[in-house]
Write the structure tokens for this entry.
Amino acid sequence: MLRYLVQRLMATIPVMGVVAIIVFGLIHLSPTDPAAVIAGDYATPAHVAEIREQLQLDRPIPEQFLAWIGQVLSGDLGDSIFSERPVLQLIMARLEPTVSLALMTILVAVTIAVPIGVVAAWQARTLLDRALMLLATLGISVPAFWIGYLLIFSVALDLGWLPVQGYASLSEGLWPFLSHLILPSVTLGTAYAALIARITRASMLEVLGQDFIRTARAKGLPMRKVLIGHALRAAAIPIVTVIGLGFALLIGGVVITESVFAIPGIGRLTVDSIQRKDIPVIQGVLLVFSAVYVIVNLLVDLLYTLLDPRIRYAA
Amino acid sequence: MTGNVTSVLGTLGRRLGAVSGLALAGALAAAPVLAQDETLRVVIHADLRNLDPIWTTAGITLAHGYMIYDKLYEFDSAGVPQPQMAEGHTVSEDGLVWTITLRDGLSFHDGDPVTAQDVVASLERWWQRDGMGQTLAGVTESLEAVDDATIRITLSEPFGLVLDALAGVRGNPPFIMPADVAATPADEQISDYTGSGPYVFLADAWEPGSTVVYERFADYVPRDEPADFMSGGKVVNFDRVEWVYIPDSTTTMASLMAGEVDIWELVPPDLAVAMEGSPGIVVERGAYSHGVIRPNHLNPPFDQPEARQALLHLVDQSDVLAAAIGDQALWQECAAYLTCGGPYESDAGVVGVVEEADIARAAELLEASGYDGSPIVILDPTDLPDLHAVALYVGQQLRAAGATVDVQAMDWSTLTSRRTSTSPVSEGGWNILVTYTGGLEAASPLTNITLAANCENAWFGWPCDQEIEDLRSAWRTESDVEARREIAEALQERAYEVVPYVPYGQFFTSRAHRDDITGYIPGTPISVYWNVDRAE
Amino acid sequence: MRSLPRAFRTDAQTSAVKPTGTFATTLSRLWRNPTASFGAALLVLLAGSAVLAPLLALHDPLALVPAERLRAPSHAHLFGTDMLGRDLYARVLHGGRLSLTVGILTAVICSLIGLAIGLVAGFSRLADALIMRVMDGIMAIPGILLAIALATIVGGGVSTIVLAIAVPEIPVVVRVVRGVVLTLREQTYVEAARSLGTRPGRILIRHILPNSLAPLVVQATYICGLAILIEAYLSFLGAGIPPEFPSWGNIMAEGRGFVLIAEWIILIPGAFVAATVLALNLLGDALRDMLDPRTRRTL
């Protein structure tokens, strides 16, 4: 187990290395002087020169990269052009709302999607199955902000059940915290849930066709025990995988959702930085989110070994 | 297949329920209750980026300044500077020596008293940056603290606008800071936010891009006079003011309708009209703005007066305002370069603009200017819907007059950097930009910076006309009201000949608040949050 | 990272593809599938409206009519007007041209680049290791964020947006193509061809390309839909195509501030986006089910 863990951890190093190269390289894709891009629209020539000096842009690119990666590894992601604060500090200050939103979304999405997938597989090729799957396909086709505005009109404004916007920290009470997260998590979770429902159905179907299920049925076990006790457990690996891989979708959606619901998280930070062409912040967010994504998928990989010990050898 | 859906879902639900239930129990245990009754929540018009109102002129930074700082003088609604931190002043016979006394009870947020030394240090930093301040500095021989409560300004020549400069609302207002903070070089930003104003800035609660929090300054002693425009007693009725920045106007509107916020500082015109009559919401007109279509005087064809005059015939204010602002209640046609409703409103020399567009005449003038058909670059700030509309309108009119037009889309912050380019169009330069200025500034030949025609020192677009400049300096040195009016008229006549810019009329900004909010001072160029109260 | 396709279509497990008849028979089978034919019909309708936009829309999509701003849908303006009084029906139909172009261009570019890289990776063990490391790296960056970053840094324009959307999707195609090549390389008839001295180029054209085509078309269909969705997101966030000419995304972006008083500006182009992406996803699902015998058995 330990060896496997170390092996998987090592495998993430080249991945993060490539991520770092891409993020570093972005700045050099700019059609104009990278120093001018980093300095921003309001910069004076003196400030541009200072940045050029600081990033050692006159040195060969590999040397620049090494200098930059050294900074990053020591936790220095540069400074924001707009607020002139350290990027890492900005990201950390925005962490809580985004993490809360992501966790809530996963909870909501899995709670909705897994039962839908199970039912669709069980009722395969019936009208119910087709309707559910059409709904799921629609779910990954509708722009998230569209759903967001719809929810704001109906649930928040017409019915007045939930707040329109903003974020309340858990320290302000459980209901404020939850109520502010419900609409955003449904908005963000729709595509994610649709994805999980589709994969759940597909893997359940595959499992349901296998011998041990037929045996279990033949032994007279009730359907719900077969579905949940046997089939769902066996189908869990692809489902867990898609929860991990779908995390990328979640992160992308955070950017949209937080801007519609005015949640002061990393997504909002990203959107504001786009409008201000605040390149260092965008780079920082890319790095951090990619790292989180890689770690989440590493955890998912480790979860496999719990779900199915055979994996260890197969990997 | 057989089985029953509910029992399957039930089992699943129990499993997931067990997990989430555990999480909820943990959360409940950690949740104290917070009372937030005495908080005023305001949706501000822009994100607060810099905290030094002497370093930047950004409206939101000035608004922050008015929260935490105080000034010697403030304008009342009649445009007269009234003492604020000052008790009063005396002027010597020859008008050269001004002596200002501070009123009692002034103290900084850290408890230190405000002294004349703080005032001197603050003014010395201020007048290195502010336009009016520079003018004052130019005629000042000495500025000194006579004792702890007395400041003396000795002028080298008579200057009628000393108090006007000290009460300046926009630009960089002369806010009073502690002397050690004011010792910061003027080209560096301050890092200590101690003021003596009615609110204290909570640096720890500041979330850039989202929230700014202020607390009532318990030891603030307001003046006895009632609040009037920027002047009078700055009485605070809320323990806490939260500024929220929400870039999405749809979300903001929904939030105000749901009663989650109390005030929306700057409402887009269409939404203001739509919200009128909504239950629980009051919509009000704010300050008015003066529309500016600015040709670049350096690049052909607008280096020629004929081409600029062509623009006067192409623009029909009622069309452009209908497209940009919408509801007619929120705008008015106005051909006066120094604004309608201001002291120098005039119809002298007006050409086009308030008449129906005369495309044929414009085409003739464009032809006469020697326009060669090369693309005319219009800078189009697409993130500001009203200006976006004006840019598209100007493009459409120029096309109708036979010009080739290149409407270049960008956001406002990109535009603010593009507009600084003095290069030819082929090298990243530009021909036309659209913007607006505050009505108050536009009303005076001194502060209407878009009217200045001092060549390379002029505002972006760089008009160059000695006659305009002569008239502006004549106005500045003249103190007789009637004579000033005559000079202003001559200025407008000249402006309609050389066209430093095309005025496209004036329009009101709007603001909205919940109907239980009272005492929100109207018409100020910067929104201020003293005097505001919540009705019982 | 495990060899799994990207999140959006992880259920499109296209790994072990066996040769499955000709493309023509696939098409005819597709036509008999109700979901696929529904998707196809919807797509033809939407694409048709875009192509025929100049004939179907009587108004100029760019003309400002201040007197007619923010009109609700009516006889005069089928979809209403926007904040500048422009006819939304004309704008949405014309916008479809740009949006679909972005979708198709992205799909084509992804397929071509992905195919080329995938073939190299499949044939050269040396290049494979390097290429797959790079692909893993690209895949570790959430796609929308990478597109945002590229679009913001390089600046507007249709070609930039297409590239920005395409880059994060290329690894998916590379993996699919590489998978096909690796599977086929071991297969007896390819082995046989090789041992008979058939030149690699010939093997490529005879065996590899025809077998890659099916899964490639499936992926291209999904990517096309995804690209249309991401274009809408990028525009919405202010990093999209400059709004000189309408696309579904920037029509919605311009209408963003008016949702509460003129909801049609966002609802209608949003419905067009949703319908197009739905049609492409349904078509993609149907294609995948037919081309992949393993999933055909179960789905």
